[in-house]
């Protein structure tokens, strides 16, 4: 794609990066076939190619974002299926992230939408506040079904529609909190390694059982696990809302405490059980590339970050029981298969440990969770969820496995089939507890 940025514009590192990304695009359109919003809506501007044109126009002419641009960028799930499909290696992730930052800084949204986004950015990264908000949501959830709000994918959802979606996602009950930062879990038997385990934000409130299963599995196989004190939200939630100052501040804070832990106790890896977080942490090196103080450490932390299945694939697991009759529908989270290029390994681990693993039709398409997308774009998100659930039902599973808490909550909202994390099944298969689903 031809670009016409001025020399002055190209002096900006972000514009220089955008120029490189735009020039890689050859207009082939392969991305349209795997873009969830294009598949649903059939609008060229709701495809990666269409959004690339909109972003190019906005950046090249240095214009404030228009309402039309904002609408179509907001509809992007950042599922990154287009990056898996693209034959030219267009880094759409970095381009759309840059567009979101510009929109956040230069576009004035309606007051109710600004307020909702501010609340999400403030509450979700703070587990204490998030737990409190979920407790309040329990009282409001019964009222959600009474709100007579029609779906409309042709216009921006109303505030009431978004509130209804948010209440519908709230769990009926909250599990007890898991272990806190500063905890160390000793390896059983001879120590074979030492890792930090990301505590997460929403996950530690909604499903602390996931990290508990990871700790059980790892320690049983000789791996010492530490929950690093003063660790913060990884920054993914605010990063995708375009609030880069907040996201980068959290990245720097995490780099500081993880680097200290690595220097004092040694770390083989920083393990992540929420793939949406893992994709962003692995990108810290890029996000802080212009920060002279943090760039080297950011690159090292990104290199240490691994999805839990990556690490488990490199150590020998010893099954203590076989569950060969249990059929698992494996949902490949977008952030894992497209963002981190990990697609086959989780299925291989499950198969090797006795489960019957079935591929889900249209596995490349997003379930509609996408961070806060199912709150901010509930109509499209619910259509994608219904499509995903229908595809899962085709394989008639006993359980559904996924590697991302957002996907798990989203899919569970449309099916009665138990939805569990991949690591819960692996823990169970190697002598741990059966997933409690609570």
Automatic annotation (TrEMBL):
**Catalytic activity, reaction form:** glycolate + A = glyoxylate + AH2; (R)-lactate + A = pyruvate + AH2
User: Any idea which UniProt keywords this protein has?
Assistant: 4Fe-4S, Electron transport, Iron, Iron-sulfur, Metal-binding, Repeat, Transport
Q: Which Pfam families match?
A: CCG, Fer4_8
Source organism, top-level taxon: Bacteria
- Could you tell me the EC number(s) of this protein? 1.1.99.14
Query: How is the co-factor bound, per the entry?
Result: Binds 2 [4Fe-4S] clusters.
Q: Name one GO molecular function term.
A: 4 iron, 4 sulfur cluster binding
For the protein in the UniProt heading, the enzyme class is oxidoreductase
Named cofactor requirement(s): [4Fe-4S] cluster
Name this protein carries in UniProt: Glycolate oxidase iron-sulfur subunit
What organism is listed for this UniProt entry? Bradyrhizobium lablabi
User: Taxonomic classification, please?
Assistant: Bacteria, Pseudomonadati, Pseudomonadota, Alphaproteobacteria, Hyphomicrobiales
